[in-house]
Design goal:
The protein has 110 residues and is mainly beta. The chain is 0% helix and 49% strand. The strands form four sheets. The chain has a four-stranded antiparallel sheet, with no helix packed on it. Strands 4-11-6-7 form a four-stranded antiparallel sheet, with no helix packed on it. Strands 1-2 form a two-stranded antiparallel sheet. A hairpin with a 7-residue loop joins strand 1 and strand 2. The N terminus is likely disordered.
């Protein structure tokens, strides 16, 4: 089934939208306090949380996400951008999380 709507940005244009199906991607969730986690390029959205010290053995310190420092408590969602000219999403790049002992929770759809 294809839905369509009149675009408020493109005068006189009709944009056809094919609804997403369960074959469009995979939902991945995880939690770690060791090493490096790589979220592969191509995700439509990513959620990352530096939970810091949660259980014995965790560090209350910062993590890095693509080289940027995230202090405990930071929680972000990052979304792909829709490109109406291409009628497709500009998918997210690879994201590298270095935990340094802090508890990190993440999920992504891609």
């Amino acid at each position: 089934m294809i839905n369509s709507f009149k675009s408020p940005v493109l005068t006189g244009a009709t944009v056809n939208i094919t609804p997403a199906t369960d074959t469009e991607g995979t939902l991945v969730t995880g939690e770690t306090n060791t090493g490096t986690t790589t979220i592969p390029a191509g995700a439509l959205w990513v959620k990352i949380e530096n939970a810091g010290l949660v259980v014995s053995g965790d560090s209350p310190g910062s993590i890095t996400v693509n080289g940027a420092t995230w202090t405990p408590g930071r929680n972000e969602q990052i979304y792909a951008i829709y490109d109406p000219a291409e009628n497709d999403y500009i998918h997210l790049p690879e994201i590298i999380i270095v935990t340094s002992g802090a508890r990190v929770r993440y999920s992504y759809f891609g």
